[in-house]
Amino acid sequence: MSALARRFTGLRAVLRREFHGYFASPLGYIFIVIFLIASGYLMVSRDFGRFLELREANLDALFSYLPWIFVVLVPAVAMRLWAEERRSGTVELLLTLPITLEGSYLGKFLAGWAFLAVSVFLTWPAVFQVARLGDPDWGAIFASYVATLLAAAVLLAIGLLFSALSKNQVVAFILAVAASVGFLLIGVPQTQEFVGKWFGGYVERLVSSLSLLDHFEALTRGLLQLNSLLFFVLFTVGWLVCGMLVLGQTKTN
Amino acid sequence: MSEDGEVLIAVSDLTKHYGPIRAVDGISFEVRRGDVLGFLGPNGAGKTTAMKMITGFLEPDRGSIAVAGIDVAADRLAVSRRIGYLPEDAPAYGEMTVEAFLCFIAEARELEAADEAIEAVLGTAHLGSVRGQTIETLSKGYKRRVGLAQALIHDPDVLILDEPTDGLDPNQKAVVQDLISSLSSDRCIVLSTHILDEAERVCNRAVILSEGRILVDSTPAALVTQAPGHNAVRFRVTEGDAEEVAARLAEAEWCASARVLPGGEVEAEPAGGENRLNDVLAAVGEHRVADVSVREGRLDELFRDVTRGVAA
Hints:
Chain A is mainly alpha-helical. Chain A is built from 15 helices and no strands.
């Protein structure tokens, strides 16, 4: 076994257990229903996506609001993952099996991400609909799905960190929502204007380069730019590593 | 206690602090194949902390642990494959069925013949009738057996059981104790308990811990003979003055103490815990006595003496 595979021993077993866990209780189904209703509403609502009014064969109306839905729903997917293990004491069982902390952490992350992917792909009727109505830019739709999954990954990594930090699922949820909102607010024009006015153009560009929304929009336009892809990958890995370090400290509390 | 079995757990100078509190304070011991070692001690004595370090869940501040010759600090994964561990309160994933939970454990342990192992352990732990039930709906006794089943699924050399019968009713306790006894022949078991009867029933070696240190390392049978009141003779004086008999016994040099109990019986405690029934009867002399009994030492009395800091 290579050193890398050894470091992630037990990943597969944890991934399978956690993924099935979403469908073992009503929680997973409730999540999917809420997600589809919310995304569908924002897509067609006259105040938001205006899909029906714009009469354009693209899915910008759907994708542009997904990060905002994720801010609430992704922490709900993540909150249970470590908080529940620590509250019930199963973390001691888990980490005395031939499973490494890194393996279990990544396994839980991938299970949550796979569950989010299932939810996101259940928006396929929207794709079906634009294909029926016009001639959409398939590259942009593909890139939008990639961007959505990457945004889900980074927010899930944030949620997982707070789940490792607090034994209480509600506390983990609230902290993760707050952190995710903060992360998204960096990208809204008002924040950037404010930063530009007080700290100058250089800081504004720096903050802008850290904006999830900017990178998300860049990707959904159909350009799979390397810097935007790197942004998501680096932040996801960064939050995951922080979470593993936190769990190493909190697992025995 | 087996003298010639292979050493399966070797602990040396193990120390762990929680902030300023020294939870485990330089303990050393070995456990061999065939041993059933009982960790006895009051709450907070360091039993659970020591077990968590043996399983690799906690890192010691100082000292070393080898399980089946493998250093825990160097290769926790290899050690975890040799150990079956039942943590305190037998945590398990409540939303899973017994069978799904054991499947998960088998997968995590990468067992090749997983189905056979699950069937075998369902039989050993008498869980066949609840295999399809979710764990959160089970009684405490069943939950504990699920915990034991997951610890046994890979037929480990070393079993670490943290308070395996705590919180169970007497019948459930007996079932779990019988199960543990049936497992002891070809492995080593370390279990913690504060029930001294349990140590006498299932263990062939007893270690008393207090404030993180080992105070006594012996066999339950030997501990009984060291317990205060071992071989004390008790009788009723049917003709004569009980106080006078007690006073006469108290003067004898072999007698540690003699007194009249509140119920009117006389109890004479021999020094050194030797059986002095004949001496007692000789000293009684012309008085007539009845209901003579010799009692065994009681572990809980020794336990109280020792853990209060009185030498055994």
